[in-house]
């Protein structure tokens, strides 16, 4: 499958996923609304990208979201310990190309690699990714997103909870992240070896090892 179509599928998985998880965590209603908007715009923009059309209107937070994913994806591969040549080519690359279609520019520095248990890697990178998305959203769309100040406050408090193993947000996000990753990674043509490695790594995260 072509790289653009893979990303279109990712935006669809993301769109479905955004409808599910945060609803389980009380106090994230405004953030969930903003994420749903981002997820829906992402599908529209990815569809246009596949058709080589100009990017439809979308909000600055959508740019921030995907440039955040680029920074996250590099750190996630390093933290899992996968073959980085393969990971960069098959996973980071297409995300980078999509982010560059949404908002051409220089990527933010990658997030820092996390050396910890798989569960803590996932949640720590969720927290630092959230932090970066807030920062880029403020930088690129401060006025546009003033109406989302409630969402920003919620996202900021979420970061603290994601860094606290055993908190209700930690458990709910770990569960939905694992679900999401399993769906997401299916779309990428990883080698058999990498696929097995990722599956085993996610299993350890699920078992809290
Ligand atoms: Zn667009």
Labels describing this entry:
globular; 8 helices; binds zinc ion; 0% strand; mainly alpha; 209 residues
Element-level helix/strand string: HHHHHHHH
What's the quaternary structure here?
single chain
Instruction: Pick out the low-confidence regions.
Output: none
As a whole number of angstroms, the C-alpha radius of gyration is: 16 Å
Q: In this structure, how is the largest beta sheet organized?
A: none
Mean pLDDT across all amino acids:
92
Percent of residues in beta strands: under 5%
Question: Which class of secondary structure composition applies to the elements?
Answer: mainly alpha
Q: Gap between N and C termini, in Å? A: 34 Å
Bound molecules: zinc ion
β-strand number? 0
Q: Specify the overall morphology.
A: globular
Query: What is the percent of helical residues?
Result: over 70%
* Number of helical stretches of at least 4 residues: 8
Structure description:
72% of the residues lie in helices and 0% in strands. It is mainly alpha-helical. Helix 1 (3-19) packs antiparallel against helix 2, helix 3 (60-80) packs antiparallel against helix 5 (118-141) and helix 7 (168-185) runs antiparallel to helix 8 (192-206). It starts with a helix and ends with a helix. The chain binds zinc ion (ZN). Zinc ion binds next to loops.
